[in-house]
Each structure stands twice: as structure tokens, then as C-alpha cells.
Design goal:
Layout: H1 2-6, H2 18-23, E1 25-32, H3 43-52, H4 57-72, E2 78-84, H5 85-89, H6 95-110, E3 115-119, E4 132-138, E5 143-149, E6 152-156, H7 158-174, H8 178-192
Parallel strand pairs: 1-2, 2-3
Antiparallel strand pairs: 1-4, 4-5, 5-6
Length: 193
């Protein structure tokens, strides 16, 4: 499978599993247009989203715990995310859940665990991708992209993954710096208190 991936063949089936792929990643870059990215979600935020989507409490609890555990397993992975400002202003469940999520993002940013950049509401040149996506540079040098749509996940390599790298760069170019983004998170936190 490794040889096949190196030669530009189809992405091996086992790499389609995010968790296994994440463990091989040196870097993970991601964009989500409507939600806080999964790795950065608090348990309450995950549960509120899933419960609103019709999941039962047991399913929501299980997935929330899995997401929290995934971040712990990525201590040596560089994590960079871009999100839209409206993501930080849209509550799921309650304003207390949103405040808890913002507190968590602040802590991750303050301890330099993640690099987060926020695209302002006033941006006129937003690259506006159709859905969420992630890019992972694996330890063997392979670049893999995961494009997420309502219909499912598309796993890509090669030219399409390189296009996602370019798109991610455009998103970063329109976003606030990490320091300015942390200041915005703090401003919204104060507004909610």
C-alpha cells in the first residue's frame, strides 16, 4: 500500500479513516465554513450540534469523547485552522456552550497548541469553498486532502491536494493574523459574559 501511495495510485482504504491518518501527520491544516473544526470542539459543543442533528445522547457522548481523545494524540502535530468569524458568533445549544467553546479556543491559542486564523465578517474577497476540508502532510512526505460535503468525504492526493493547499493559502491571506484572531475571540468572550 505504501508503494502504491508513493506512485500516485489510489489512496489506500485504511487512510480514509481520519484517526489513522491523523496519527501519521506532521501537519494538519483545516478550514470549516460553519463550525469550529472537530479537533477543536468542546464536549458540550459537539453534543449540542449532534443532538440538534437528531443523534441520541449516547451517540453524541461517544463522538464527543472520541474528538477530545484525538487532539490528545496529536501533541507532536502542527495544527493550523482557518474559520469564518460567524462561526464564533453562532451558538449551538446555549450562549454558555458557545462561551465554553470560546474559552477552550483561547486556551489552545494561548498555549500555542494551535494556530487559528479568523476570516472577518467584512471580508469582500472570501475564497468561499463549497465545504470543509483538511490537509495532512504525513511523515513519509505524502500530502492528503479530505474534502467534506453533505454527501460525504472525498479523499484526494496529487493535483487536487495541491489545489487545496493553494485555497488554504488564499483563506489565510484573507484572515486576521493569529494574534488578531485571539483578540477577536477575547472580544466575543467579553460580549457573552
Amino acid at each position: 500500500m505504501w508503494e502504491e501511495a508513493q506512485e500516485g495510485g489510489e489512496v489506500p482504504q485504511e487512510w480514509r479513516d481520519f484517526e489513522r491518518t491523523e496519527l501519521q501527520a506532521l501537519t494538519i491544516r483545516g478550514f470549516h465554513p460553519t463550525l469550529v473544526p472537530g479537533l477543536l470542539q468542546t464536549r458540550d459543543y459537539v453534543e449540542a450540534i449532534l443532538r440538534n442533528g437528531g443523534w441520541n445522547k449516547a451517540q453524541a457522548d461517544r463522538l464527543a469523547q472520541e474528538r477530545a481523545d484525538r487532539l490528545k494524540n496529536l501533541e507532536d502535530t502542527a495544527l493550523t485552522f482557518v474559520i469564518n468569524e460567524e462561526v464564533l458568533r453562532r451558538g449551538h445549544g446555549s450562549s454558555n456552550i458557545l462561551l465554553g467553546q470560546l474559552d477552550y479556543l483561547h486556551d489552545l491559542m494561548e498555549h500555542r497548541r494551535i494556530r487559528l486564523q479568523i476570516i472577518p465578517l467584512s471580508t469582500l474577497q472570501h475564497p468561499c469553498p463549497d465545504g470543509a476540508f483538511r490537509l495532512m502532510l504525513l511523515r513519509n512526505g505524502t500530502l492528503i486532502g479530505h474534502e467534506q460535503y453533505l454527501s460525504g468525504v472525498n479523499v484526494v492526493q496529487g493535483a487536487r491536494a495541491e489545489q487545496l493547499v493553494e485555497l488554504f493559502g488564499h483563506l489565510q491571506g484573507e484572515a486576521r493574523s493569529p494574534q488578531e484572531s485571539m483578540q477577536l475571540v477575547d472580544t466575543i468572550r467579553r460580549e457573552l459574559r
